[in-house]
From TrEMBL:
GO terms for cellular component: cytoplasm. Keywords: Cytoplasm, FAD, Flavoprotein, Methyltransferase, Multifunctional enzyme, Oxidoreductase, S-adenosyl-L-methionine, Transferase, tRNA processing. The keyword Repressor does not apply. It comes from the Bacteria. The keyword Kinase does not apply. This is FAD-dependent 5-carboxymethylaminomethyl-2-thiouridine(34) oxidoreductase MnmC. Its EC number is 2.1.1.61. InterPro entries: FAD-dep_OxRdtase (IPR006076), FAD/NAD-bd_sf (IPR036188), tRNA_S-uridine_synth_MnmC_C (IPR017610). Residues 29-412 form the FAD dependent oxidoreductase domain. GO terms for molecular function: oxidoreductase activity, acting on the CH-NH group of donors; tRNA (5-methylaminomethyl-2-thiouridylate)(34)-methyltransferase activity.
Length: 458
């Protein structure tokens, strides 16, 4: 990487084929901790690169917690400013679509059952939002998005909507559990459920040859590289216990019945096209947003919140699903009594930017670079105290269906030393994306939090 890049926002060079490993009894090349969307994407990318990968999950099945909803949106919340956030979302969107198509071609997913690029409408409910959407429509090609009025939105959706907005013709929905299961079926991946990790320890063999011991109950596994993909639970491990997260509880609601939608609709909340589940047509919508609240069981009050958000997007759909909006009789309606729901937490970081990349030892980092407390522009000539071979992909929040795939590719390139530093040129027709801007990589880097501690004397 270029000498102009801040040293703590780079990545350590690894020598994973070193003779140092000849006498080491390795269980795997890579251990990924966490079998949600982020961990499964990372495992798949490295398995494709030829690594022997294990995925450890504390639950009895993969894709639980924030990755366990019935349907996830391929949702791009873009800004009229052409920033690295837009690069992250658009590149991630393209990579996710490619991955879905690849898994479908391999017979691991079924389009229309496990995922669908049916399209997505983002409604514009205010003048400010309409102005923003108008700017976006002028910036991006119609292949990605274009403006539609209320009549067009209702026609495309197959239900009367309360406004027009932006239409993303190649967006849609994904079943996270089916997606994760398909990724973990790779022949180079060993998925291990009921494997709660209690400790990880570094015992690197040389400055470029990492070695990690991962403890599950009383058993220890050895691997060259460890990837943490456990959302905010990464703070349970000593190496990451100071990373700040915002945790949000979200509840989705599933109603029996067919909403008759042809596309995903996103307004105050979202609603996906109905899906046949266990022989019954069901419709999922939501989701609530409550900061610093635990997951737990679904609540009637949050069902009400979701229905009220749906009402703002389409009273017609509320009526189709027999979700009476008479507040005096709301929870006694036929539709309401048959509702099911799912509550989970999602972890995000400052600026809603995921945490992706290698990480340093915090205590030694703060000591070696302490001059930054006095001079924020200082770049000390000190060696970055890397936790060699340890990487993170976490804090994807509600955007994991889009950002987890690009995060996985970035990790793969860090680990196999393929990162090419140049400005990202987004080509919506490209088959793959092999380079990322340094601005994007720096924004995602885990060490940004340690630098911030020094810069702002926290």
């Amino acid at each position: 990487m270029s000498d102009t890049v801040l040293p703590w926002l780079q990545s350590p060079k690894l020598s994973l084929n070193s003779v140092n490993y000849d006498d080491i009894a390795l269980d795997y090349d890579v251990i990924v901790i966490g079998a949600g969307i982020a961990g499964s994407c990372a495992a798949f990318k490295l398995a494709e690169a030829g690594f022997r990968v294990a995925v450890f999950e504390k639950e009895a099945e993969a894709a639980q917690a924030g990755s366990g909803n019935q349907q996830g949106m391929l949702y791009l919340k873009l800004s009229p400013s052409l920033t690295y956030q837009n690069d992250l979302l658009i590149l991630g969107f393209e990579q996710t679509l490619q991955l879905l198509q690849q898994l479908t071609q391999q017979g691991l997913l079924t389009k229309g059952v496990d995922w669908d690029d049916c399209g997505l409408i983002q409604l514009s409910k205010s003048e400010k939002k309409r102005e923003k959407q108008s700017e976006l429509a002028q910036i991006y090609p119609q292949e990605l998005l274009y403006s539609i009025n209320q009549a067009e939105a209702s026609r495309i959706a197959g239900a009367e909507l309360t406004s027009g907005g932006l239409f993303f013709p190649r967006s849609g929905w994904v079943s996270p559990q089916a997606f994760v299961k398909a990724l973990l079926s790779h022949s180079n991946i060993d998925f291990k459920a009921l494997h709660p990790v209690t400790q990880i320890e570094s015992a690197h063999l040389s400055p470029e040859s990492p070695l990690w011991q991962v403890t599950v109950d009383q058993h220890r596994y050895a691997a060259k590289v460890v990837i943490l993909a456990m959302a905010d639970r990464v703070t349970e491990l000593a190496q990451c216990d100071s990373i700040p997260f915002t945790v949000v509880r979200g509840q989705t609601t599933t109603a029996k019945g067919n909403a008759g939608l042809s596309v995903v609709v996103s307004g105050e909340g979202y609603i996906a096209p109905s899906k046949l589940i266990n022989g019954v047509m069901q419709t999922t919508f939501g989701a609530t947003f409550h900061r610093h609240q635990p997951a737990g069981n679904p609540t009637a009050s949050e069902h009400v919140e979701n229905i009220e958000m749906l009402q703002m997007s389409s009273p017609a759909i509320v009526e189709r699903l027999q979700l009476d909006n008479d507040h005096h009789n709301f929870e006694n309606s036929i539709g309401f009594q048959s509702l099911e729901g799912r509550a989970s937490t999602r972890a995000s970081a400052m600026g809603s930017i995921p945490i992706v990349g290698p990480i340093a030892n915090r205590e030694r980092f703060l000591e070696r670079f302490q001059v930054i407390r006095l001079d924020a522009k200082a770049i000390p000539e000190a060696e970055v105290p890397w936790e060699l071979g340890l990487y993170l992909t976490t804090a994807h929040g509600s955007r994991g269906m889009i950002t987890a795939s690009i995060a996985a590719d970035i990790l793969r390139q860090y680990i196999v030393d393929e990162l090419v530093e140049k400005d990202t040129n987004i080509d919506l027709r490209a088959n793959s994306f092999k380079s990322y801007s340094q601005e994007l990589l720096s924004a995602l880097h885990p060490n940004r939090f340690y630098y911030r501690e020094l810069r702002f004397n926290q």
